[in-house]
Amino acid sequence: MSIDVRPVRARALTMLSYAAMMSLAIGLNLLPVFLTTLSELYGGAQGLTKEQLGRLGAVAFSGLVVGIIVTGPLADRSGVKRFAILGNACIAISLLGAAVAPSYAWLTASLFVLGLGAGMLDMVLSPMVAALHPERRGAAMNWLHSFYCVGAAVTVLAGTIALKAGIGWRGSCLVLLPLPVFLMIAFAPLRFPTLVTEGGRTPLRQLLRNAWFLGALVAIFLGGATELGMAQWLPAFAELSLGYPTWLGGMSLLLFSVAMALGRMVVGAAGTRWNPYTVMAWGCGTSIVLFLIASFLPVPAVALSAAIAAGLTGSCLWPTMLAVTADRHPDGGASMFGTLAALGNAGGIFMPWLVGWIADRSTLAIGLAVSAVAPAAMLPLVLILRRTR
Q1: CA angle 170, 173, 177 (to 5 degrees)
Q2: DSSP 3-state assignment of 372?
Q3: Taking burial as the number of CB atoms within 10 A of a residue's CB, which of 178, 189, 203, 388 is the most buried?
Q4: 8: pLDDT confidence band, cut at 50, 70 and 90?
Q5: Cα–chain-centroid distance for residue 227?
Q6: What DSSP element (H or E) covers 6?
Q7: How far apart are CA 127 and CA 192, in angstroms?
Q8: What is the helix (H) or strand (E) element at residue 191, kind and residue range?
Q9: 4: DSSP letter
Q10: Among 37-51, 58-72, 363-377, which is the least confidently predicted range?
């Protein structure tokens, strides 16, 4: 694949992409820390209803989906640079808007723009880094996505400290504002890589007729389900099922994010020395074991430790599947990455819902145990994809 940047610029773009992945994480992890605060801030004496609080998260995710869907085809036509800049601009504007929002409606609009910016970055960062490192995409993808986990941990930690210090929602938005502003300025003078070779982009319609690619879509759906099924319910599981205080539930999610970052960095450091399909197979197998230990072992400390460790073992699934798909279809372009991201996020929506649905009818522990179906289904699929690569 031809690269439209000199080596030193490639390194600079890669480092900035890591920082942009942290910026993306702000858009997806800031809101949950402040739900109670926002209820008091915008709901008056009675507070916001649960539906109104849930609507805030739904609006942010809607922006994410719109950003992914719209950006893919446009980035294939006009390049990724403008969307890397525009995504950070949306995040910066929305953080400022959320900090000064005088009403619930204003806050809702700001969160939509925040999700929109996150979706744009989610769309362009993976294909850009894959184009910059065509000989080591697996390592590059894991390193890139490890910084999402770093950004999530930093965002949760900053929000928690802000609550303790009395800075609150508005102050936290302003504290996080400099990162996307810096990235807008830093990206502006740089040249960006082309995403396809001289042979031209492989149309998405053609990819969707390819059995291997369809298998990859199912696999990344299951990878997203594995990752987010535990992540979304971990604080509640620690508090309601294991009997830990609320603050420790929040800390468990922070440690889960750190474990995910560590796992992706380890796979990234290993580079081409490790077969990516073998890495994913081991990740699936160990995740199954840890999910079941967390759900059924009657020792709270060990169960919580297993749940946190599942962040380490499941961390490689999403980025490594992106990498092997890019290796298989190097001219898929941004549309291909957008389709993969959409399926991965769909898995991340479906599994937390399924866990909650099952928990309403039995227990949360049973719900999390059922979520082990995702890595169990992904394991044979990964082995099939390896045999047919």
Answers
A1: 140
A2: coil
A3: 203
A4: very low
A5: 9
A6: none
A7: 11
A8: none
A9: S
A10: 37-51
Asked if residues 114 and 95 have their Cβ atoms less than 8 Å apart, the reply is yes
Tens digit of pLDDT for each residue in 244-281? 887 787 788 889 988 998 999 998 888 778 899 999 99
Nearest alpha carbon to residue 12 among 264, 148, 189? 189
Write the single-letter amino acid at 369. Answer: A
Distance CA 114, CA 120 (A): 10
Asked if 293 and 303 count as a contact pair (C-beta separation under 8 A), the reply is yes
**Cβ 253 vs Cβ 340: under 8 Å:** no
Let me know if 266 is exposed, middle or buried by CB neighbors in 10 A (0-12, 13-18, 19+): middle
DSSP, residue by residue, 227-258: HHHHHHHHHHIIIIIS---HHHHHHHHHHHHH
Those residues with Cβ within 8 angstroms of residue 241's Cβ, 6 or more apart along the chain or in another chain: 363, 364, 365
Task: Give, in order, the Cα–Cα distances in Å from 351 to each of 35, 116, 260, 383.
Answer: 22, 23, 18, 22
Q: Which amino acid is at 64?
A: L
Tokens (6 digits) for 99? 């900090």
Which domains are delineated in the chain? 1-188 (1.20.1250.20), 202-389 (1.20.1250.20)
- If you count DSSP H runs as helices and E runs as strands, how many of each does the chain have, helices first? 17, 0
Residue written as token pair 């372009």: 333
How far apart are alpha carbons 269 and 124 in whole angstroms? 23
How far CA 331 is from CA of 132, 271, 283, in Å, comes to: 13, 22, 28
196: tokens are: 């396809």
Beta-carbon neighbour count of residue 231 at 10 Å?
22
Q: What is the pTM of this model?
A: 0.80
